[in-house]
Amino acid sequence: MAKKLYVGGLPYSTTADSLKGAFAQAGAVESAVVIMDKMTGRSKGFGFVEMSNDNEAEAAIEMYNGKDFEGRTITVNEARPLEPRGDRGGSDQRRRF
């Protein structure tokens, strides 16, 4: 079963292809994505890599966590599930002046 990893502290110049290529040294990469800011189109400095199994994911964590990647020290750990954000006062709320 695939395991998703969080990769933080990425240089803004990192692409999904360069991330995938680097993590392929630890094993088979199912997918790699760099999270982009919707407004600016610029990298947010983090991403996710999905490794094909737990052993390869552990190898990737050992290989890259706290290590230099393209000039920056990155953080690599198992990704946590997305938690609900709760009510942020969206359009369904009525404002009274």
Automatic annotation (TrEMBL):
UniProt key word Transport: no
> Biased composition, Basic and acidic residues: where in the chain?
80-97
List UniProt keywords, sorted A-Z: RNA-binding
GO molecular function terms here? RNA binding
* Stored CDD domains: RRM2_NsCP33_like
Please list the residue ranges annotated as the RRM domain. Answer: 3-81
| Coiled coil (residue ranges) | none
Q: Which InterPro entries match?
A: Nucleotide-bd_a/b_plait_sf, RBD_domain_sf, RNA-binding_reg, RRM2_NsCP33-like, RRM_dom
Keyword RNA-binding listed: yes
Region Disordered: list its residue ranges. 75-97
* Stored Pfam families: RRM_1 (PF00076)
| Name under which the protein is recorded | RNA-binding protein
